[in-house]
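Worked example 3 (structure in, sequence out).
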């Protein structure tokens, strides 16, 4: 079950809802309301699964392509765009 992509849940859920809504409307009863509810629930499940998968894929945190830069004098970590060490003032030469 865990391998079913969320989009399948959404599709099946929508089909459930539409099918039971149409059948419901034709028969003018509300016996299928339960199935509409199931469809809505499946859509919700699909959305949640989809959202989770999106969250799992995205954490490619923009690792600033620049390598970490360290001051050659005091060794403190610097931002790649720093021109001078903010600790000892040593000039950093861009690589
Ligand atoms: Zn320094």
């Amino acid at each position: 079950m865990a391998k079913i992509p969320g989009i399948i849940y959404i599709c099946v859920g929508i089909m459930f809802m539409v099918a039971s809504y149409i059948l419901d409307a034709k028969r003018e009863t509300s016996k299928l309301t339960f199935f509409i509810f199931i469809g809505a629930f499946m859509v919700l499940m699909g959305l949640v699964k989809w959202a989770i998968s999106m969250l799992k894929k995205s954490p490619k945190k923009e690792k600033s392509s620049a390598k970490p830069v360290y001051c050659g004098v005091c060794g403190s970590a610097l931002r790649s765009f720093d021109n001078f060490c903010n600790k000892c003032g040593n000039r950093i030469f861009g690589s």
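Notes: The pocket of zinc ion is lined by residues 71, 73-74, 76, 85, 87-88, 90 (CB under 6 Å). The chain has a mean pLDDT of 79.
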